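#data-curation
PF: Archiving a pair of folding outputs for the training set. Convention for this channel: one message per protein, sequence first, structure tokens after, nothing in between. First:
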Amino acid sequence: MTDPRVTKWAQVLVDYSLAVQPEQLVVINGTPLAAPLIRAVYRLVLERGAHPVVQVTLPGLAEEFYKTANERQLTFITPDERIGPEQADALLRILSESNTRALTGIDPARQQLAQRARTELRQTYLERAAEGKLNWCVTLYPTEAYAQDAEMSLAEYEEFVLRACLLDREDPVAAWQEQAREQARLIAWLADKREVHVRAPDTDLRLSIAGRRFVSADGRRNFPDGEIFTGPIEDSVEGTIRFSYPSMVQGRRVEDIRLWFEGGRVVKATAARNEEFLHAMLETDEGARYVGEFAFGLNRAITRFTGNILFDEKIGGTLHLAIGAGYPETGSRNRSAVHWDMICDLRHQSEVWIDGQLFMKDGEILI
């Protein structure tokens, strides 16, 4: 990508998303493919008087780790892993994979063993973020692998990413602030509501949001952003939901996922592809069978599925829910080593009723 575009991107990340301040410890994580953006962010963090720590991971190391490590090594948490969740004031993760399917052949049990060992570390990360002690942001640097998943050329994908991030606007920060105002309006309306009822093809789902908080994701957490999310009452989810798009997790593509809930718990799950992996993930721990997040996608600059959850969960007119860990700032009490987002497209033949009022129809907000 050209330098002016990368510089603009870095400026928004450092000054708007992370709001970097002097003397803060700022961790920047990525792969060598994201070197232009890592370098630009690093320079700006220094200029803001903060202390950057760069963590660059080589392609293939994760695959080598899961194939070679013994049980003790799989569960050992290195000081390098701890610095972000436990010590950093700001944490930027730049997704920049060269092969999104590198872990497809790994035994899921080995991945789950490593995940379970990091449950408390993940909870520390979530709690520090909820307390305002850690600003974190996840963005994605375009690579050939992501472009191939999206069925685009690299040049097309670069333009898609810039539009989704509102970086094609003259003033991206002003654009995100406008998005924030609209999301705040919706959250204000939702503040005293209790029950959500979703009806869509092969979907009839009810859940309670009573006493829970919706949080606005407006470019400060994910970049791109554009969603409002909450954590439903853990035992309130009832009914069934069919997810419209394939889900990529741990290098595996799971297609046509359907979940059935009773008392908040997944009691039945099917998938047209990689169903065995879906069942294995649900067995990771008890919290993996409960919903930790329920959200509405509101980014109208993202209109198509790309195979990457960072973008797809923000598609305007969709909802997504995540099985597993919830965000403490929403009031969620669900803990798990898993947080797996799944997307349901509501742009056709769908309705969302909230406390008996039609909130969304065919992907359009009506309130």
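PF: Second:
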Amino acid sequence: MTYERIPYKAPGVKTQTCPLPMAMETAEVPVFDYPVTPVENFRLAAARKTPYWVPSALSDMHFVSHRMVFADKIGQPPSPPGMPSGTFTDWFGVEWTFVPMVGGAMPTPGKHTLKDVRRWEEDVVFPVLDDYDWRDKLQKFLDTEYVEGKVINFNFGQGITEALIALMGGYTEGMLAFAEEPEAVRAFFDRHADFAIEMIDKVFEVMPFHMYSYHDDWGTEKDTFFSRDMLMELIYEPTKRIIDHVHSKGAVFQHHCCGNITRFLPEMCELKIDFLQLQRRAVDIPKMKQLYGDKIGFNTFIEDLEFGKPVEREELIQKVRKTVDLYCKNGGFFTSFGAMSPELMWDAECEFYAYSREFYDREREEQPAAV
């Protein structure tokens, strides 16, 4: 079956206005005639079963940040127009400086909140979550913004290694701590995992989210920050506890992980991460899909799309189709994209929906009949 590509703002077409994650902009896109709810479709994709269309972070999901729920300055999103500049201090006491060139904030050079990792219990004060009016904020979101049937993606923010690196003032200090004081590092990671699990429980109590997004960068664009031995000794078990706790809630776990972390894909599969959001210029994600797609899913942008470079509509359509062809086989994929003109956002959303429905219709027809 062929599905309609709806012309931009065609008369009579029902639309929805979707906020772009981590930005101050919105996009208007059509409301499609879904055969199942976005949540039901997303669960099929996460289970690496054949969904009905490729889930879209733009139209199928709500993005709820820990920043919105617990505090105003828990790290900063990329810098769209109007976002504040200068320095600020987060809820762990880390000073950050906004860097317009990279579109975000970085720990202020020369500042070391934690100078000696052996003193983390004395020098690091974990936030008391009940000091924030999180219940009211979550309930307000559910009452005024949530659209029934959409996926709720709760964004946790910094993972265990990123938190330590920020506290210590950078990767040089952090990696030295890994090598010289592994017992203290592991103890901090265990405590930070406890903090993550506490937040999961509190948020889920009011807002039963469908996906939990966790940010922990493990590499540079060349290779990983640390060895496999360090991963297994220091990071694996605390991370596994967080993942297992998310799964105990019936939710999906997404790991955002920058850098060339290709060597860690087998361990990430063992951890039972549901979706990886990787840095495309550092990782051959199509190859990872071929090698590990039966064990782990991927969230990517539009393949070959260069941010800031103009693109014509027909070229964009071909890039969307290439993305579907590369990543959609047997589910285990959803897409995120933005930073285009309103009309191109509309066209990309329509093509993802229509082309992937055609793709999955064929895949469903080719599956052997149940006995």
